[in-house]
């Protein structure tokens, strides 16, 4: 600054003289800043090395022609995200410009230019530092406010981007619950296995209670292992017909009792004991079956 102000009295301003002065200025600035910039460079390299180690990848310098695609570039330029960034950057520039303009205009209205001419160099330096400090403080406050607003927006945008589309929700539900086709196939196989187990239990049953054409329920009772008669098989229509065929083949008695057959079919699951309210009706059927066996 001393050199600059001292050279103002020089009247012979030429192109060479200005170039020499500017070169000298650049050299002096680089000489002053080089220790700080060099130290920051070393700190940055050390931090990078501690985080990811030594990495040297020339592939990053390889040109990628797909990045020169004009159509995708225009789409990215006019996307919602780019538009929001552009608006926020313009708003940031306007806010900082307004804060700086009004502060500088206010301070210059308070300062008398004639008094500045007569003050010493040190007083001028103090005045400049004061102005820069006040300006930096106000600009920092404005940037902090904008940063808080940007943080709120980025957090909202992040949560919004985490939301899934309807197709993604359906796909996730399918992965959690399983493919409907596979589940249907598994249920079909399970029904077939249950049907085989049920049919294999009919020959061991004591009696099959029928409603001539619609229902058939196979019962078994063992007083040593069961508290009450148990339904080992049941079915309607075609399955009932199949139960009766197997029962006839293995000489299991068929007893026609429409109310009892309907009640057993609707209220008792396979492998479950009959409820207490049906004890009397089932006991009559079993008594009849036991009498037939004794006669034989």
What does this structure look like?
This protein has 3 domains: 1-61, no CATH class; 63-163, no CATH class; 200-295, 3-Layer(aba) Sandwich (name from scop), CATH 3.40.1690.10. It is α+β, with helices and mostly antiparallel strands. The longest helix is centred in the middle third of the chain and has 42 residues, at 121-162. The chain has helices at residues 2-6, 15-52, 70-77, 80-110, 113-118, 121-162, 166-177, 180-201, 238-249, 258-267, 279-295; strands at residues 207-211, 215-220, 230-236, 254-256. α4 runs antiparallel to α6. The protein contains 11 helices and 4 strands, in the order ααααααααβββαβαα. 69% of the residues lie in helices and 7% in strands. It has a 4-stranded mixed beta sheet, with helices on both faces. β1 (207-211) and β2 form a beta hairpin. The relative contact order is 0.05.
Structural key phrases:
296 residues; alpha+beta; name from scop; 3 domains; 4-stranded mixed sheet; 11 helices; 69% helix; rod-shaped
